[in-house]
Each structure stands twice: as structure tokens, then as C-alpha cells.
Amino acid sequence: MENDKTLLTAPAPKPKHTAKKRKETLFLICMLALPVLQWLVFWLYVNFSSIMLAFQDQRTGEFTFTNFAMFWDSLISPYGEIRIALKNTLIYFCTSLFVIMPIALVISYFLYKRVIFYKGFRVIFYLPAIISGVAMVAVFTNFIDPTGPLGTIVKLFGGEIPPEGLLGRPTTATWTIVAYCIWTGFCGNILLFSGAMARVPIDVLESAKLEGISPTRELLSIVFPLIWPTVSTQIIFVFTGLFTSSGPILLFTNGNNDTTTISFWIFSQVYGNGAVGGSGSYNLVSATGLCFTVVGVPIILFVRWLMEKIPAVEY
Predict the structure, then answer these.
(1) Which of 234, 251, 249, 237 minimizes the C-alpha distance to 88?
(2) CA dist 64 to 25, 60, 68, Å?
(3) Which of 53, 107, 269, 296 has its CA 20 to 30 A from that of 83?
């Protein structure tokens, strides 16, 4: 009887799957501990004082919302620096998303199909990433000069470039830099898209070819869905730089002629030509960065959720 009571009161053995799940949970915690600790130390701790600057008066250090009021005034003013910087930043963002990426996708497709002289075109499109940015800007600046090749071409058609040049006018300076960004912005996307297209099964394309499919339909109906994970990842990356999109402003205009962007404006405020390296408006810069972060993070998370809702083709 005593043995029976002992058996009745003894704890039941724990299921093996519970112990396995506990080990997996412990493993995940250990793996995530390092990146979380790194974020706490190297981002939160380092940037904590910068975040607090947004709520401090520049002269007295007292708690205030004046910096956010200054940010809002500059944002809604027709001639505010932040308003101009935001407009230019969105121009560069839309250029990356709606111009550079689609054109790079088409170029990658033609390189993938091995059109005539495709190896030469590949080198041409990779050159901007190989040659120094300073050299590329110098070449482009000389090309668009009123006395340069572009000026000569325009004169042949009866036109004329303004004496101050395209970079010397607020109405054309930003769009000129945008044209340079388009010219030099294909390399990264072409590398990724070409790598993704190289994994497309040849059997699928050969079967479609037997059915008489056109190149346009092949790209849109077969290749594009098969490389969608790469495309969606690139779209998320572009949205990650929503408020940091910019061009080589420092090399072209140094922010003059209404060409500044948010990232260049922050750079000029901190490292510009002021008495202490910049303007000293660190509190305003902190408030500006905090506001754009609060707006940008939900947008990025929503875009990521939206991209994940589109099913990827398994192959």
C-alpha cells in the first residue's frame, strides 16, 4: 500500500517536448541578448543625450518645447530651410523608388537576356561605382557647363544654357543633381536584380518561349514574380531612407540655390562654417531628427507589413 501511495503522489515525468522547447527558448534568448545589448549601449546610451537636447533650451538648458515650435515654423514657412530640405529629400526619394529602381529592373532583364554587347553595357553601368565620386562629379559638372559639351549640343538646336549654368539657378539646380543621381544610381540595383534573375529556372522560360510569349510579358508575368522577394527588400530599403535620401550636394552646390536636403541640412548645422564648426543649433537639429523618426518608423513598418502580404512565388 505504501508503494502504491508513493506512486500516486510522485510527480509525473515532464514531457520531452517541454524540455526541448525550454532549450530552444533559452537558445533564442542567448542569441538575441547580444544584439539587444549592443542596441542599448551603442544606440540608446549614445543617443540619449542627443534626444534630450530636443527638449532643452539652447541657452539655459531648461525643459522646453521651443525647438519643436521652431521646427514647425521652418516646416510650414514657404521659405523655411526645413521645408525646402524636405521637398528636395522627397524628390530624391521618389526618384529612387519610381525612376531608378524600375529602369534598373529593365536594364537587368536585358543584361540577363544577353543582348548584343551586354558585357560592355555591364561595364558602363558599373563604372560609376568604380570611379571616385569626386571624379564623377567633376566630369558631370564640366559636361553641363555652358561652354562644355552640353552647351555646344544645345546651341546646335538653337537653345542656350544660362551663363550661370544649370547649377546656378534654384529652378534647375536640384533637378540637375537628380539627373546625375539617375545616371550613377543603377549599379547597386542591377547587381541585386541580376543575381536574382540568375536563379530563375531556365525550364520555365523555355516553356514560355515555346508558347510564344513576348519579352515584355516574360518580364512582367514570369521574371518579376520570381524575383519579387529581392524587389520587395529593395523597396523596404528605399523607404528606410525616406527622410535621408540625398545626392552629392556638398560636391555640387554646398546647399546653395535651394538644393539642400534634410541630411545635408543636419550636416551643415553640425559641421558647417559656423563659429563652432556649424551653426550651433544642436537642439533644433535634435528636434528635427526626432520628429522625422517618429513619422518615418510607422511608415517603414507599414511598408514592410504590406510587402509581406504579397505572396512570393516558390521555385
Answers:
(1) 249
(2) 44, 10, 9
(3) 53
Q: How far apart, in whole angstroms, are the C-alpha atoms of residue 313 and residue 227?
A: 8
**Per-residue exposure over 196-233, b if at least 16 CB sit within 10 Å of its own CB, e if not:** bbeeeeeeebeebeeeeeeeeebbeebbbebbbebbbe
| Contacts for 169-175: CB closer than 8 Å, 24+ residues apart | 169/257, 170/257, 170/258, 170/259, 173/252, 173/253, 173/256, 173/257, 173/258, 173/259, 174/88, 174/91, 174/257, 174/258, 174/259
CB 190 within 8 A of CB 125: yes
Q: Which pTM does this prediction carry? A: 0.85
What confidence tens digit (pLDDT) does each residue in 277-289 have? 566 688 999 999 9
Burial status of residue 171 (CB atoms within 10 A of its CB: 0-12, 13-18, 19 or more): exposed
Residue in the block written with cell 549654368: 165
Whether the CB-CB separation of 261 and 246 falls below 8 Å is answered with yes
Q: Which residues contact 291 (CB under 8 A, 6 or more apart)?
A: 68, 71
Report the alpha-carbon distance of residue 106 to residue 216 in Å, rounded.
10
- Domains of the chain (ranges plus CATH)? 66-309 (1.10.3720.10)
Phi, psi (degrees; rounded to nearest 5) at 63: -70, 130
